Amino acid sequence: MSAEPPVPALEETKLARPKDPDRMTAADTPHPVFGHYRLRLTDNQVVTISGGLAGFLSGIVVCPLDVTKTRLQAQGSYLRNLEDEVKINNFEKRRYTGIIRTLGTIWNEEGIRGLYRGLVPITFGYFPTWMIYFSCYEQFKKMYSYFIEDDTIGYFASAISSGAISTTVTNPIWVVKTRLMLQMTKGRTIYDRFGDTVGAAATQGGIKREYYNGTIDAFVKMYHSEGARSFYRGLLPSYFGLIHVAIQFPLYENLKKVLRVDGDTFDKKTMTFDQFCRLVLSSSLSKILASGVTYPHEILRTRLQIVNSDSTKPSAGLLKTLLSIYKNEGIPGFYSGFLVNLARTLPASAVTLVSFEFFKSYLQAATS
Fold first, then answer.
1. Which of 111, 147, 181, 289 would bridge with 70, disulfide CB 3.0–4.6 Å?
2. Membrane topology per the record (predicted)?
3. Topology of the domain covering 39-367
4. pTM of the predicted structure, to 2 decimals
């Protein structure tokens, strides 16, 4: 009898055994969300997505304070210096004063919708603004490093260049955002709440009092009634605001170095609470210093954005607006709503910059 053919040995399973944790590399470690799958993103795409997400998150967090700041800035000096007949109409009790009181007034008169009025343009404004800004900023840092030896000067030039691009592209969104935040209930703006006399004075002062039914309606009505140039009102003072990022980002980059949090390893698994606090401190200190120097441009920008494009009143031009504020309000007029702005920008800066660092490292871990 012939011998039976040998039984072939069972093939070893193709499923790899789990590696020894001590021998695993960073690439072997499963991502907390994507597992062993890896995203195919370039470094530029990682920065772009991270910047957009950081801006979107920041817009949601700070919208109520942004509404408060805009209303304090927009009520203007002429509202505080009208004739006695207006003050008899309980004007002093109705005007916005202070952070807490303004928040309370908006809540009592308009509810939660009032605090989030303009949420759509603000979130969709922050998203492209920071997406464009961070994308350009990272590219400019690389480009300037070839012929600028000093890092601080390179950061300064990168901040100015990227800020100019993002400001120009997104200015129409911010004009619409400002108009929407000045609205209250159906058919009313903040100027109507002071009474007919003040409302009429606002119109005579060149203030646009038309009511908009949302973001798209605002774009359409502004285009038909004021033309395309209405979307670029306040652009010139916004360029002056580039000094802000030119101060903040070099400070932020250097503070990260001083506090030893300038690495690229801040993902979900490695960022410690101590590192998180240092990033928050870096963003906050840089924001406070930059805001103190550059805040007056925000007053100018807001006043210019709320006037009619065809207005010939003193508030229509940059220089005349500047002189009008100084004449009627003095130096304090250029810092109207500054504390509200600081209360808004500090958390906004922390949320934007820290979340950008987080999203960036998180996505880098998913692509490695």
1. 181
2. Multi-pass membrane protein
3. Mitochondrial carrier fold (1.50.40)
4. 0.71
